Amino acid sequence: MGDRPYDPRQSRERTAMQTGVPYAPDLDLGVDVVMAYGLGPSLPDRISSWSEQGYICHCMTGIAWGEYQDYLYGRWDGRNHEDEAQMDARGQRISHGGDVYYMCPTDSFADFIAERARAAIDAGAQAIHLEEPEYWARAGYSEAFRRAWADFYGDSWLPPDSSPDARFRASKLMYELYCRAVARVLANLRRYAEDQQADVRLYVATHSVLNYTQWGIVSPESALAHFEDCDGYVAQVWTGTARVPAFYRGRAEERTFESAFLEYGALVNLTRVSGQRTWLLADPVEDDPNRSWQDYRKHWHDTVIAQLLWPEVWRYEVMPWPERVLRGAYREEDQPQGPAPARDRIEIPPGYATEILVVANALTDMQQERTEWQSGQQGCGILISDSMMFQREPRGADQTLDEAHALAFLHGLALPLLQAGVPVHLVQMEFAHLPQYLDQYEVLFLTYEGQKPPSAACHEALRDWVHQGGVLVYLGEDGDPYERVLEWWQSEGPGYASPREHLFDTLGIHPDAHPGSGSGTHRIRSGGLVHQRTNPSSFALSPGGPELLLRLTRQAYRRRNLRFETASQIVLVRGPYVIAAGMEGTGNEARPPLTGPFVDLLDAELPVIDSVKLLPGERRLLLSIDEVGGPTDRVICSGSRIYGQRREGHRFSFVSAGPSGTMATTRVRLSGRPEAIEIDADRNVEARWQSSSRTLCLRYPNVPGGREVTIRLGG
């Protein structure tokens, strides 16, 4: 166990990091779990180095790409597998760098991954994460994919770019292939672990369906909830995914908080349905070396606040690569775009490092029984389907604009609601038929522009929900070329020209009732339908779009005899923590201040503030001092892990541990004024006492093995 003053193997798994390097004191974050990344000869030693320091060890490896040349070139089974590399229409293999190709997941490839991953079980990993089952939508031209097409469809392969139907069918096959491969690897590893009498959990790490749609990737997504051998998921959302521009009021701009909130929400669906463990990821930096620490800090705030607004989940991957964060070098401040020469790059600012550690430690405390929303309307959702990945086609040479357009149909619905302070849910159509899944919603939005329903069962579930009092808002123009793909609505009953017609028929409304302009409303038993012949992308692409969407929303809530509530902020209270985001609002709401006293956890100095008035675009993570439970004398927040707190007479002491090369700021609540402070018997301590909050703020260098802090209190 080394010199660590605790053994996290006796605690719950709450926080994690993934790393490709062995233990080092400057990476000793004190999280509960280390995910050792990558297979290969060094894995046992890397796992051993972290486990010897008391960490729970998992292993993560790619299931679409990796250092799998033994398989590629036939050294594994004697057969060359280069024809299984994903290939685009130009005949180019799609690479993650060099001959690290994205693979078509055949049964033999799945068996290779499973065999290699067994080494992690042998090395003592307590869990295995299969990362990013990804098939590029622009692929589908390899010989392996052509063979899979013939087996799956029973007819000759069609070039995916030859028609909307071919594109849709190719993407469905890519989806199915990765469903099969992931399930096969999980089952193989489960059997092996049981044979070894090892208790090993199995996870899948994945981006959201929203990001995969933007980036043109197909992945199983909602199907993961039904994998028998899957114990949970890692929701891979970070600055790099969430900063993809989104259209709002006609402008495509980075809207990192809003995008991250929606991405996390899409993946939280898996937890709601399966009850399995979910880890939410955020990253203090990303892959781009030309951005600045200032930029990364701002966008990291957006993702941290967005993930904390999903109280169903309380496990977090605090960063994927601590070596990239704590040893990285980037510009200090934003500069004009362009390569950043080495001389302009600096190591992580000490304050940002402390702030990251403060948040990482706060994340261990998010399993709170008390949650309370202070925001706009609850019970509002937008229906989404994995099929949005099946309609992804490049639109032009401007990749950034292309990515922004890919989700305009969704952002036209979601962003006006978020900006009105409504913490809207993304509701998975694939789960709609499951018992009670739709019960928490009063109003649901639906469009088949950009996506299609997975089955008739989805419409039957919506009918039953409407009969029980729900109001469905449907928007769409009809005429999307993907309406004519050879899918279930074409053969259902008499056959329908579009899935919207089948929906209306299922609801008991004539399919031709969709108006030519304006909107229509129908009472359906206890609930109703509001529909408008409008592509919701128009709400994203026009300056006045949000007002039009909110008008329809009010109309829907009136059908339920409810007043639609908006707010200028989204605030969630989780025990003593206040998570807050300032939004635009609708212009009619007062903006009441949040009243403390609070500790500002997104400031390395951990200042105490009495009240906070949120401005649009502002993000806050606050600790309410008066709401912190436990003994009066206790550490309430710190940029280090705190252990062994004890009060003996007039002395209060604790152990503080953190990565070398970083500074800890620690705020302590005390029953009396401190008279003397020692850290490892050194009385030369930077300390500030605030009598109004009865808290003491300390600042000192972190030590991985821990430092003994002793405070003598006045009588």
Provide the CATH top-level class of the domain at 380-559: Alpha Beta
Low-confidence stretches: 1-10
Residues in β-strands, percent: 15-25%
Basic shape: globular
Largest sheet: 8 strands, parallel, barrel
Q: In the CATH scheme, what's the topology name of the domain at 380-559?
A: Rossmann fold
Report helical residue fraction: 25-40%
| CATH architecture descriptor of the domain at 380-559 | 3-Layer(aba) Sandwich
End-to-end separation: 39 Å
Mean pLDDT, as a whole number? 94
Number of helices: 18
For the secondary structure, the number of strands is 34
Task: Please explain how this structure is put together.
Helix content is 28%, strand content 24%. The chain is built from 18 helices and 34 strands. Helix 3 (107-122) packs parallel to helix 5 (164-195), helix 4 packs across helix 5 and helix 13 crosses helix 18. It is an alpha/beta fold and 715 residues long. Among the domains are: 380-559, Rossmann fold; 569-622, no CATH class; 634-713, Immunoglobulin-like (Sandwich), CATH 2.60.40. The relative contact order is 0.09.
Short description:
The protein is an alpha/beta fold and 715 residues long.
Task: Fill in the keyword field for this structure.
disordered N terminus; Rossmann fold; 24% strand; 28% helix; eight-stranded parallel barrel; alpha/beta; 18 helices; six-stranded antiparallel β-sheet; single chain; Immunoglobulin-like; 34 strands; globular; 715 residues
Q: How would the blueprint of this fold be written?
A:
Elements: E1 15-19, E2 33-37, H1 43-51, E3 56-62, H2 69-72, H3 107-122, E4 127-131, E5 135-136, H4 143-153, H5 164-195, E6 201-206, H6 209-215, E7 217-218, E8 232-235, H7 239-242, E9 246-248, E10 251-253, H8 256-274, E11 277-281, H9 293-308, E12 315-319, H10 322-326, E13 329-330, E14 346-347, H11 350-362, E15 371-374, E16 380-384, H12 399-406, H13 408-419, E17 425-428, E18 443-447, H14 456-467, E19 471-475, H15 488-491, H16 499-507, E20 519-524, E21 527-532, H17 537-541, H18 545-559, E22 569-574, E23 577-582, E24 594-600, E25 608-612, E26 619-624, E27 634-638, E28 641-648, E29 651-657, E30 663-669, E31 674-679, E32 686-690, E33 695-701, E34 707-713
Parallel strand pairs: 1-2, 1-12, 2-3, 3-4, 4-6, 6-8, 8-11, 11-12, 16-17, 16-18, 18-19, 19-21
Antiparallel strand pairs: 5-7, 9-10, 13-14, 15-22, 20-21, 22-23, 23-26, 24-25, 24-26, 27-30, 28-29, 29-34, 30-33, 31-34, 32-33
Helix pairs in contact: 3-5, 4-5, 8-9, 13-18, 14-16
